[in-house]
Amino acid sequence: MRQSSHTYVYCLIGLIALLGLVALALRSHLAIGKAEPTSQTSLQIALGKELFNDAQLSADGSVRCASCHIPDKAYTDGQRVAVGVHGRTGTRNTPSLATVEASGDNTFFWDGRRTALEQAVLDPLTNPVEMGLHNQAELIEKIQANAAYRNAFVQAFPDSKSSITPDKIASALVAYVRSLKSPESAYDRYALQGDHTALSPQAQLGLAIFKGKGRCAECHLLQSSPATLTDHAYHRTGVGLDAVNQNLPALTQSIIDRSLHGAAIGDRVATHADEAQLGRFNVTQDPADIGLFRTPSLRGVASTAPYMHDGSVATLDDAIDREVYYRSLQAGYPLSLSVEERRDLKAFLQAL
After folding, report:
1. pTM score
2. What is the dihedral of CA 344, 347, 349, 352, to 10 degrees?
3. Going from the N-terminus, what domains does the chain have, and what CATH number goes with each?
4. What pLDDT is attached to residue 341?
């Protein structure tokens, strides 16, 4: 009986050990399964970064994506409007790419003409005043001529056909753009970690104004974790409309007659400053959308001057004044922020 008991115990111990080895093997298998896509994504991010920084993908070899989206400037360029190939200037201020992932953007460009980032990342390459290539076929030809790129595409997309396609180029660029992270802000530490010392007393007063009297949080939302600081909607601030008001009927009719879509809208807007001021109307042809522009996230806003869709507002102080003025018009009464309150609001914006 004693020997049988010992045998039973030994068998039980052996069974437990075997189950442990099986569990360990299963965990290892699952870990490898999870690691593989991460490794694949890393290859795509690396490829996307190379494409993003390659001036040879522009018509004159002088402009890269990183020319307008500079890391040290929160992936903007500090210019009023973007400058592209042959020194051509566009009509729109360069938006930050550092906020794309954190803010959960679901439309792109100031007028929201693209609803997928995979579409949006390719448009600048063939825009006549950005990188200036004639079409996507020319883009593919340039990439295929580079042996290092051919090898990198095979490694980054091993399960697909060996040819380089616009979809693969877009996927690599999207992987890189989505990997960009805006640094943790003082407000993040305050709101997410409960560190009440992260915001200065002045910035905390500014937060109260942002949520209350200033009405900023109605469009630049604070509820998410982390805060997106945008409502993903379109609003009118009046910026730029004064210059085209007299010609508005002819402009709107011309846009309706053409009824362009996607990249074609971008090409037209980039080369016609008057039509660019009509904003969302270029996409919808709805008169109610004249002068509406997408709400940008305010993450890192102190580093992204100048402001507004046309870069016409030079400083953060000017942007605050402009917003207060138009919030007053929308509310039907003056918001009347004092000099001190404006300083407090600016201190909070600098903490985002």
Report:
1. 0.86
2. -130
3. 50-179 (1.10.760.10), 186-349 (1.10.760.10)
4. 97
